[in-house]
Amino acid sequence: MMNNSLKSLSKIRSGTIISGKWHGKRYTIIKELGAGANGVVYLVRASDRQAALKISDNPSSITSEVNVLKSFNKVQGSALGPSLLDVDDWNQNGHQYSFYVMEFIKGPDFLSFVQQKGPEWLEVLVLQLLSDLEILHQNGWIFGDLKPENLLVTGPPARIRCIDVGGTTLNGRAIKEFTEFYDRGYWGMGSRKADVGYDLFAVAMIIINTAYPKRFNKTTGGEPQLMEMVRRKPELKRFEPMLKKALLGKYASAAEMKSHMLGALRPSQKQSVSSSTPKSRTQLHQKKYRTAVSKPKKKSRFLETLLLITAVSMIYVFYLYIQVL
């Protein structure tokens, strides 16, 4: 729930200019993008680009999120979160607010993209997500508030991006922010301590969410209810062992869950079919080649025979003509 100070921050009008106290950079408010327990995010216009600006009356919260983004930015070749552009304070009506400016990531959220493009994209995006989480976990962070709304898809080529790092927590500490449907504590399947299993439980719930776009309510809770919901949907059947293991916190790492998912996508039956395909295609091409080569030969032999018969016939007719004369 927002306090009165945050409520006032959620009413900043379009066109308002936020000027940094220390760096002097100016940002023009375009529109509000979202609000949470620790601040409000706005789309702003900087000097040469659009960006996202998060403002709060809680400096420690801003500092924590900035540290997360700085940690992300140190990871080379990763798209874990938005790039950090600026950090500053804003004095307004006798109050000082802290803010930071980050890359504005544009694209549909996870569920919307899968619904638009087709279920075959689920595997692609989840594998990308698990790769990113592996890097995040290796750097000592747990994403925490992992849900489809915090995952946008940019591109082409399609690339999943994590936004809203407000729930990102150091491994071993208490989760700062969560959304009930993706929270193992809500389902009675673990604590709200930040660890690898917490994020992977959320990944499993995101996969389940694709088959239940409107989610579903908790009744009995725990493994029995969640696995029953999995078994009701044919599209989740092939993921059942993986989902169960993630829900029960049996994976040691995101990389292990990724490996299990790849195994589910490439069973031995598919490998045997693919390995036999090149041989059968080669045999087919050889047969076509032999057929194509044999046809001209047969045709040329027929023409040679026809010409020979014609020539003999003409000689014989000529011989008869001479005899008559």
Description:
There is one protein chain. This protein is α+β, with helices and mostly antiparallel strands and 325 residues long. The protein folds into two domains: 10-103, Phosphorylase Kinase, domain 1 (2-Layer Sandwich); 110-266, Transferase(Phosphotransferase), domain 1, CATH 1.10.510.10. It is 47% helix and 18% strand. The protein contains nine helices and ten strands. The protein has helices at residues 4-9, 59-74, 110-117, 120-138, 196-211, 222-231, 240-247, 254-265, 268-324, and strands at 17-19, 26-36, 39-45, 50-56, 84-92, 95-103, 141-142, 151-154, 159-162, 169-170. A six-stranded antiparallel beta sheet has the order 1-2-3-4-6-5, with helices on one face. Strand 3 and strand 4 form a beta hairpin. Helix 3 (110-117) packs antiparallel against helix 4, helix 4 runs antiparallel to helix 5 (196-211) and helix 6 (222-231) packs antiparallel against helix 7. The longest helix has 57 residues, at 268-324. The protein is globular. The termini are far apart. Residues 268-299 and 316-325 have low confidence and may be disordered.
Topology overview:
Blueprint (H helix, E strand, L loop, with lengths): L3 H6 L7 E3 L6 E11 L2 E7 L4 E7 L2 H16 L9 E9 L2 E9 L6 H8 L2 H19 L2 E2 L8 E4 L4 E4 L6 E2 L25 H16 L10 H10 L8 H8 L6 H12 L2 H57 L1
Antiparallel strand pairs: 1-2, 2-3, 3-4, 4-6, 5-6, 7-10, 8-9
Helix pairs in contact: 3-4, 4-5, 4-8, 5-7, 6-7
